Amino acid sequence: MGDRGEEEEGRRRKRVVFVTVGTTRFDALVSAVDSENVRKVLAAKGYTHLLIQLGRGSYLPTKSDGDDGSLAVDYFTFSSSIADYLRSASLVISHAGSGSIFETLRLCKPLVVVVNEDLMDNHQSELAEELADRKHLYCARPQNLYQTLADMDLNTLLPYSPGDATPVAKHINRFLGFPDD
Amino acid sequence: MDKGNVSSFSMVTSTAIFSSVIFVITLILVRVLYVIYCSSRPMSRRAQKPVSTLIILGSGGHTAEMINLLAVLQKDRFYPRFYIAAATDNMSLQKAELLENSLVAENGTPVNNPAKFMKIYRSREVGQSYITSIWTTLVAMAHALWLMIKIRPEVILCNGPGTCVPICAIAFVFKVFGIRWSSIFYVESIARVKRLSLSGLLLYKLRIADQLFVQWPRLQQQYPRAIYVGRLM
């Protein structure tokens, strides 16, 4: 899914893992993806680049240009459009916000959602777990991210069919006494 | 003798005051029950004219869900449209403006009464403690009252931000006192799978929302008055 067509001969195929923490901070996720074993398992699975959106986090990952055949690592804080990064990614590792979850699913990208357990009102895991039960994505915590990545089999993921607001709109119209179209 | 007259007079007046207070309270209670009863039922008359619509935007994911709903709502029926977003949230109003601009571009002609965009103080920021929330909620309440007096919408669409609770509560009071009848539609966020959010729970339990939509069938089973007709995302 989502691999770039313009693969140059003799070069390694560029396969990007894009990590996004959204508008807040999620240092536990950034340090988890920056850990040695996560980098190794991603490289072993054939990914070549790791691009991390840090948000307001203070943990800075170690950059690497990947010359020695290891994973190339780069990061930035914010971008006005995450969509381009999602589109060029082969795997997305995201915080559990519904915005980035659905944006990624809509682009049919394989997705691992990492739930932030430090949030006060932690309802975010509900959505990620429900979608994981339905096999649309993988759901992890920072501490078991490595295991999730090591065990994951992207072929078992099912595509997500987007919802439809029309029935809700129809119900509202009927309730207000507007005739059906 | 005089003394007895005075005391019996004051007794009569206090009884009169007491019974009229009871009467007024009963009247309001009956009216509240009547409003709740009417709110839960579809409008009996056929709608002819467009309805002024207030759209309360949340942040991030909430706004994306609302935009999906607005995209399929008939713009000639839900008109004029007023958008409210939290003062700290610039993105949501921008997204709504994008949507409205795309409508103008579609129709070719600029609308004579364009959509209006407003900001409101937030009752609770993500991560704020519940205790300080009390004070910020009061400030948000006063601001919401001012905005509602200005807008007096016939339809309110909201989907989850804390901002919508004071506004919907004010709309309900307006209904009770006959200032304005507004139909309140609340769509619970798709992020809520097992439990309603605090906003959703308040609007459901207090029966402020005329219709409350949920996006997962499991939630509908827990809250039988809620409606499940599919997902927005």
Keywords:
heterodimer, A: alpha/beta, Rossmann fold, 6-stranded parallel beta sheet, B: 233 residues, alpha/beta, 7 helices, 6 strands, membrane (chain B)
Helices and strands, with pairings:
The complex is a heterodimer of chains A (181) and B (233).
Chain A: E1 16-20, H1 27-34, H2 36-44, E2 49-53, E3 72-76, H3 83-87, E4 91-94, H4 98-106, E5 111-114, H5 124-133, E6 138-140, H6 145-151, H7 166-176
Parallel strand pairs in A: 1-2, 1-4, 2-3, 4-5, 5-6
Helix pairs in contact in A: 2-6
Chain B: H1 2-39, E1 51-56, H2 60-72, E2 78-86, H3 90-107, E3 116-120, H4 130-151, E4 155-158, H5 164-176, E5 183-187, H6 198-205, E6 211-213, H7 217-222
Parallel strand pairs in B: 1-2, 1-4, 2-3, 4-5, 5-6
Main location (chain B): endoplasmic reticulum
InterPro entries (chain B): Oligosacch_biosynth_Alg14
Subcellular location (chain B): Endoplasmic reticulum membrane
The total of beta strands of chain B comes to 6
- Return the string of H and E elements of chain A: EHHEEHEHEHEHH
CATH architecture of chain A: 3-Layer(aba) Sandwich
Rough shape of chain B?
elongated
CATH architectural designation of the largest domain in chain B: 3-Layer(aba) Sandwich
**Helix proportion range of chain A:** 25-40%
Q: What name is given to the CATH topology of the largest domain in chain B?
A: Rossmann fold
Q: Beta-strand level of the residues of chain B, as a percent range?
A: 5-15%
Annotated CATH topology of chain A: Rossmann fold
Distance between the termini of chain A: 39 Å
What is the topology, as strand order, of the major beta sheet of chain B? 3-2-1-4-5-6
Interface with most residues: A-B, 35 and 45 residues
What is the CA-CA span between the terminal residues of chain B?
80 Å
CATH class of chain A: Alpha Beta
Query: Going by CATH, what is the homologous superfamily of chain A?
Result: Glycogen Phosphorylase B
The low-confidence runs of chain A, each spanning 5 or more residues with pLDDT under 50, are: 1-10
- Given as residue ranges, the uncertain stretches of chain B (5+ residues, pLDDT < 50) are none
Specify Rg of chain B, calculated over alpha carbons.
Answer: 21 Å
Protein name (chain B): UDP-N-acetylglucosamine transferase subunit ALG14
Keywords (chain B): Endoplasmic reticulum, Membrane, Transmembrane, Transmembrane helix
Pfam family, one (chain B): Alg14
Subcellular location (chain B): Endoplasmic reticulum membrane
